[in-house]
Design brief:
elongated; Curlin associated repeat-containing protein; signal; 511 residues; 49 strands
């Protein structure tokens, strides 16, 4: 049993005598072990309150509450030791108020909550140690407020939530150490708000969700190795997602879905064996960008379910990279992949596309690229490769007024263009400079179409086939040795021109 000194008893009596007034103050300090403190200031007229609770020891429990019209108030918790528990609540019309919990030690648990009409208020939770659990919650009409959670150590778990009407507010989660897990959630009406998560260390995990977002920003920064980031925005307008990872074996998964308008996804990875995925659904005037620098990276961009005036972009610099862009039900969209290195693979897919552009540029050796456009109108597909052992293929089906172009500079390159099934006013062009190149163009049911193959080098072979062609022209030009060309046209008003300069060339034209 603890015995209070006369001075302490008088002090507590003076403090307690003011508990029903407008300016209340409650201060508690405990030094030892197994202590528990509970402070509750409740009254409809509470204003300008201060709660300070300090516990130094082990297995301490601290609970502070300020409810019903909490204005110009502050709550502080300080716990030093292990297995401490702190809970602090401000509710019912909280404005110009601060909640702060500081914990130093291991296996501590803290919960900070501000709810029901939060205006210009701050909730702060700091944890230093290992295996700590922290949660900061602001909900039910949060305006111009800040929720901040800092964790320093390893194997910590932190979560920040702002929900049910979040406007012009900020949610921040910082984690320093190893094997930490962090999550930020802003949902049910987020306007002009920012969610920021920073992780420094190894084997960290970050999860960030925003729902019904307007003019919002979600940002995740990870520095270390074997980090994982997951970001999701739903019903997004004028919003952005930024994920930056520096290290090795990082993974990022970003989604914007359900009516995404004028929004952006940006993923930047620097290191080795990184993997990034960006998905947008029901997209209008939006963009998904992935930039990777390192080796053995993999990137994927998906835009589906009515994509209008949007961009998918992937840039890779390194070795053994793989990139893919998928756009479905797309109108006036751009899919661009740029790779610099060796043994890269790139593929773009556009389905039910009108007025769209697909481009793949590769510089290095051992590259593979494929562009496929299905049910395409007024679209362009371009493949450019510089290096050796490259292979490029373009497939356009049910194409109208479309263009396919392949340009290769190097050796042992293979180029293939297919435009089939009601091809109208289309053109296919292949250019190769090097040796042992192979080019193939097929246009089926073509009208107002032209095919051109130019090869300079040795052991090149080109073939042009146009079936059901009307007013079409096929041209093959080869300079080198051991080249062979085959041109076959069926229809009305075809013209075929083939020129070979060198030795061992063979040519066949059938109209």
């Amino acid at each position: 049993m603890k015995i209070l000194s006369p001075m302490t008893a008088i002090t507590l009596a003076v403090i307690s005598s003011a508990t029903l007034a407008g300016n209340n103050t409650s201060i508690l300090t405990q030094i030892g072990s197994g202590n528990m403190a509970v402070t509750d200031q409740t009254d409809p007229t509470i204003q300008n309150n201060l709660i300070v609770q300090t516990q130094i020891g082990t297995t301490n429990d601290s609970d502070a509450s300020q409810t019903i019209d909490t204005n110009n108030s502050a709550t502080w918790h300080l716990q030093v030791g292990e297995s401490n528990v702190a809970t602090s609540i401000q509710s019912d019309n909280t404005s110009l108020s601060i909640l702060s919990i500081n914990q130093l030690g291991q296996a501590n648990m803290a919960n900070v909550e501000q709810d029901e009409n939060i205006t210009a208020s701050v909730a702060i939770l700091n944890q230093v140690g290992q295996s700590n659990v922290g949660e900061v919650v602001q909900y039910d009409e949060v305006f111009s407020s800040v929720a901040l959670l800092n964790q320093v150590g390893s194997m910590n778990h932190g979560r920040v939530e702002q929900e049910e009407g979040v406007s012009v507010s900020v949610a921040i989660l910082n984690q320093f150490g190893d094997e930490n897990d962090g999550g930020i959630e802003q949902e049910e009406g987020v306007f002009g708000s920012v969610a920021v998560m920073n992780q420094f260390g190894e084997m960290n995990n970050a999860d960030l969700d925003q729902d019904e977002v307007t003019a919002g920003v979600a940002f995740i920064n990870q520095v270390g190795s074997m980090n994982e980031a997951d970001v999701e925005q739903e019903d997004t307008t004028f919003s952005s997602i930024f994920v930056n990872q520096v290290g090795s074996m990082n993974e990022a998964d970003v989604e914007q879905e359900e009516d995404v308008t004028a929004s952006t996804i940006f993923i930047n990875q620097l290191g080795q064996m990184n993997e990034a995925e960006a998905f947008q659904e029901e997209v209008t005037a939006s963009g998904a960008f992935i930039v990777q620098t390192g080796s053995m990276n993999s990137a994927e961009v998906g835009q589906s379910e009515v994509v209008v005036f949007s961009i998918g972009f992937i840039n890779q610099i390194g070795e053994m990279n793989e990139a893919s862009i998928d756009q479905e039900d797309a109108t006036t969209t751009v899919a661009f992949i740029n790779q610099t290195g060796s043994m890269n693979e790139a593929e773009t897919f556009q389905e039910t596309t009108s007025g769209s552009f697909g481009s793949v540029s590769q510089a290095g050796s051992g590259h593979f690229s494929a562009i496929e456009q299905f049910e395409v109108t007024s679209s362009v597909a371009i493949v450019n490769q510089v290096g050796s052992a490259n292979e490029g293929g373009i497939d356009q089906e049910e194409v109208t007024a479309s263009i396919a172009t392949i340009d290769q500079v190097g050796s042992t390159n293979d180029a293939d263009i297919d435009q089939v099934a009601e091809t109208v006013s289309s053109a296919a062009v292949i250019e190769q400079v090097g040796d042992a190149n192979d080019a193939d163009i097929v246009q089926d049911a073509t009208e107002f179409s032209g095919a051109l193959i130019v090869q300079a080098g040795s052991m090149n072979m080109s073939e042009i086939t146009q079936t059901g062609a009307i007013l079409s022209t096929a041209v093959t030009f080869q300079v080198g040795t051991d080249n062979s060309y085959v041109i076959s046209q069926t229809g009305l008003g075809q013209r075929a021109v083939a020129v070979q300069i060198g030795t061992g060339n063979m040519g066949t034209i059938m109209q």
